[in-house]
């Protein structure tokens, strides 16, 4: 098994066309879709978001072919514990953490990734994996390999989030899964909004319009509560640059799914999604809060429902929303279970002892906290 890791410093493009071509090939053959680790978004994130202490790209290869790609970072703390560990890289705008593993070589890929982490002097403590699908290819391969190797594996947390996966057309889905009272209210709001001017729904098709759409989205998001709290993309030059770069690369690769609703030519709601394989990930939504009485957020999601269900190339869409999200949970009926794992790392000598102690300490602290919570 051939293996390699690449440390990347902030702002330093440490990959070229050949490297990106290898990642693109792996993404096309991935057993589990993850738009956030596909080259479009990953390269944009590496260019603009990979700050200190830096990101490493752990690769697993077999016969010269790339079969696994896992972006990781070492963190000095694990939750409240002063225990260092290595984890998959989940930046502020990454909502799914499944590594890219080649279809048909899932266990082999994870065997290579874990072997490299075991041997890496910089890999502290244990492997902390966030944002995996409990029913996905990565979770299954990890479970099988950990059983085979008698390697410690502990599920830390799980939650369900909304997902759209249905063979129904948009109208049938809407009528089946959304209450009649809510559907009636939405129709009323659509009519009231139309009284204000010309309402137009569009899906981005022209590359020349992309810079304008990105600017509109950044301004629209910043005009609301995210702007006031400083969490809008436009509040950070790096975040805004990441968004523009990711959208441009994804559009060129045929993976950007960008919608908007205009009122008299002005954007009042926008939604950016990123595709990978037969699926898609809902990335960010923005709407004019001054028109909140018309529920523009719900209206753009209704437009999204029609766009997704009308596209034979999209079999499902992950909402990437928090659990129990009041808006999207009322519109999408399906759920995806997201899990976190701690995976024991091995090594030699004192390193092996230290990693075992860190894994045991984290698990023990969690067990004690659960008991205390149960007693309170």
TrEMBL record:
| InterPro entries associated with the record | Acyl_CoA_acyltransferase, BioF2-like_GNAT_dom
Every BioF2-like acetyltransferase domain range: 180-318
Q: Name one Pfam family in it.
A: Acetyltransf_6
Q: What is this protein called?
A: GNAT family N-acetyltransferase
The opening ranks of the lineage are: Bacteria, Pseudomonadati, Pseudomonadota, Alphaproteobacteria, Sphingomonadales
């Amino acid at each position: 098994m051939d293996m390699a890791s690449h440390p990347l410093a902030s702002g330093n493009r440490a990959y070229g066309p050949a490297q990106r071509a290898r990642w693109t090939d792996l993404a096309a053959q991935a057993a589990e879709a993850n738009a956030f680790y596909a080259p479009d978004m990953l390269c944009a994130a590496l260019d603009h978001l990979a700050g200190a202490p830096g990101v490493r790209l752990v690769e697993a290869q077999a016969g010269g072919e790339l079969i696994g790609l896992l972006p990781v970072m070492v963190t000095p703390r694990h939750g409240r514990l002063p225990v260092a560990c290595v984890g998959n890289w989940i930046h502020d705008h990454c909502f799914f953490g499944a590594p890219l593993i080649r279809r048909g070589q899932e266990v082999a890929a994870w065997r290579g990734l874990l072997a490299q982490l075991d041997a890496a002097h910089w890999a502290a403590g244990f492997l902390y994996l966030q944002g995996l699908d409990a029913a996905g290819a990565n979770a299954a391969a990890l479970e099988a390999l950990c059983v085979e190797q008698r390697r410690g594996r502990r599920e830390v947390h799980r939650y369900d989030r909304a997902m759209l996966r249905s063979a129904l057309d948009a109208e049938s889905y809407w009528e089946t899964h959304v209450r009649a009272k809510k559907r009636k209210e939405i129709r009323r709001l659509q009519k009231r909004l139309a009284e204000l001017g010309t309402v137009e729904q569009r899906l981005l098709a022209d590359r020349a319009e992309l810079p304008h759409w990105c600017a509109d989205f950044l301004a629209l998001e910043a005009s609301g509560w995210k702007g006031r709290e400083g969490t809008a993309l436009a509040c950070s030059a790096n975040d805004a640059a990441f968004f523009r770069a990711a959208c441009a690369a994804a559009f060129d690769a045929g993976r950007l799914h960008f919608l908007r609703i205009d009122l008299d030519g002005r954007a009042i709601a926008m939604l950016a999604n990123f595709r990978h394989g037969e699926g898609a990930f809902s990335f960010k939504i923005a709407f004019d809060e001054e028109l909140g009485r018309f529920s523009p957020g719900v209206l753009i999601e209704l437009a999204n429902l029609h766009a997704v269900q009308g596209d034979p190339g999209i079999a499902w869409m992950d909402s990437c929303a928090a659990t129990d999200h009041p808006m999207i949970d009322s519109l999408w009926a399906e759920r995806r279970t997201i899990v976190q794992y701690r995976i024991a790392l091995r090594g030699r000598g004192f390193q092996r002892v230290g990693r075992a102690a860190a894994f045991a300490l984290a698990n023990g602290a969690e067990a004690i906290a659960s008991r205390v919570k149960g007693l309170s």
